[in-house]
Design goal:
356 residues; D-amino Acid Aminotransferase, Chain A, domain 2; binds pyridoxal-5'-phosphate; D-amino Acid Aminotransferase, Chain A, domain 1; binds 2-OXO-4-methylpentanoic acid
Length: 356
Amino acid sequence: MEIEIVSIESADLKPVPKEFGFGNVFANRMFSQHYSPDKGWHNAKIGPYEPFSLYPATAVLHYAQEIFEGTKAYRRPDGNINLFRPWENMKRFNNSARRMAMPAVDEESHLEAILQLIAIEHEWVPDAPGSLYIRPAMIASDPALGVHASDTYIHFVILGPVGSYFKEGFNPVPVYISDTYRRAVIGGTGDAKTGGNYAASLFVGEEAKTKGYSQVLWLDAIEGRYVEEVGAMNICFVYEGKKLVTPPLSGSILPGITRNSVLRMAADLGYEVAEEPVDVQEMLAGVQSGKVSEVFGCGTAAVIAPVGKFGYKDEEHVINNYDVGPVAQRLYQELTDIQFGRKEDPYGWTQMIEVK
Ligand code: PLP
Ligand code: COI
């Protein structure tokens, strides 16, 4: 892929801010390219981070034909930059594209575009514990209201420095279990990273917030019995400090890259690991008795996020005295040490970008 690099006047470049939250500050440049059936992907460029010009009839604004990804760049102690398993994000992007009837992007070219963008914007990668969040996305751009797959698309990648996703930082978060509403069903789009899944979760997310919870844990849509995942992360349960269990990839949850990494690292650290269905009532009884010794979420934005309590049917279930447990602590350390290049990566998960 030939990428045009559009120059920006230095007076138009924003300085890198010292303070940022999650997802509200963006680097000066973005990558974009367009798709049409006759030209395929074309007009690849790295240019200013700026608004798109879209007609009000644009398909994505009405029928949500959209996909996205989330990965991060980490500042290593030697000043260079690590990406963490980015090729998995490229693969998942195309899986999501397929499910949403969108054209595939060449995975190598997609990663190359990200590498070039970060090489130019390397100053935007903050020092640990912050990181640079990378958000690739694709939207349907036909200006037409018929309900069918668009002919044209825009693929873009934006970047921004981020801190902790949760206001709690690496401290336990309160999680609400929805007993009425469902997020995804097998055969639906739950295993694709598409905006509609998140839009459908917002109503319950707001309800959870009014009750004092940060996130929603979703149950399966058929029986409302089995645990699926949290709004922005997969979920893991620790039994008696020894066994780590996460729900299987049923087709209705996102196949998380952090989830996959946690399973591998936990096994190598000597924990028993299993992907098996988690019955919500049994799990809550386990929390009550102490058999479930820890619960934590895992995801790119969330990293490892200990869960302090569950709210379910107006009852509170406090986990591990609302403390960070040793398994979450150990996995957080192990994972972030590899991501930030503080220890050797035994898995070949990191890709280094040399800063010259
Ligand atoms: N589940 C959902 C719904 C998510 O949005 C995310 C975040 O990407 C995850 C799980 C975790 O996936 P990953 O570890 O690949 O970031
Ligand atoms: C991520 O972890 O990258 C996500 O996409 C989660 C969220 C910010 C939607």
